[in-house]
Write a structure and sequence with these properties.
This protein is mainly α. It is built from three helices and no strands. The protein has a domain at 39-116. The radius of gyration is 22 Å and the shape is rod-shaped.
Length: 127
């Protein structure tokens, strides 16, 4: 049963990675549009929400696994295995979250630079 869940999670992560790669290619081609810069925070928020849903599903399945561990004779070994599975499932989510954090920092930096460029006085007319 655990192998079936791991297989399902692996398939889910693979599909998520493929969607993210295709989405990144589309983002690169349309990055020059001003409207795309405004859509960036919304896109990041949507992806964060999807990561939170995935994380909740992983944690819920981990709670179920740990509850089953208490029914076994080798409780500690089962709990250790359950934690290992949880860490393996959460690691890709943490990596995706780091990528989202980097994208958000880059977007904020770009927005700050644009604001600063707009505030600079025009020095061409002064001697």
């Amino acid at each position: 049963m655990i192998r079936v869940r791991l297989f399902w999670l692996a398939g889910w992560f693979a599909a998520w990675a493929l969607w993210g790669g295709a989405h990144a290619q589309n983002m690169g081609s349309a990055a020059s549009d001003g409207s795309e810069l405004q859509a960036e925070p919304q896109d990041i928020a949507i992806q964060r929400q999807a990561l939170a849903v995935q994380r909740d599903a992983i944690l819920k399945s981990d709670e179920q696994r740990q509850a089953l561990c208490w029914q076994k004779f080798a409780v500690n070994a089962c709990l250790i295995e359950s934690r290992r599975i949880r860490r393996q499932a959460l690691d890709p989510l943490a990596q995706q979250e780091l990528v989202l954090n980097a994208r958000e920092r880059a977007w904020r930096s770009t927005q700050r630079d644009l604001r600063l460029l707009g505030k600079q006085p025009d020095k061409q007319g002064t001697p």
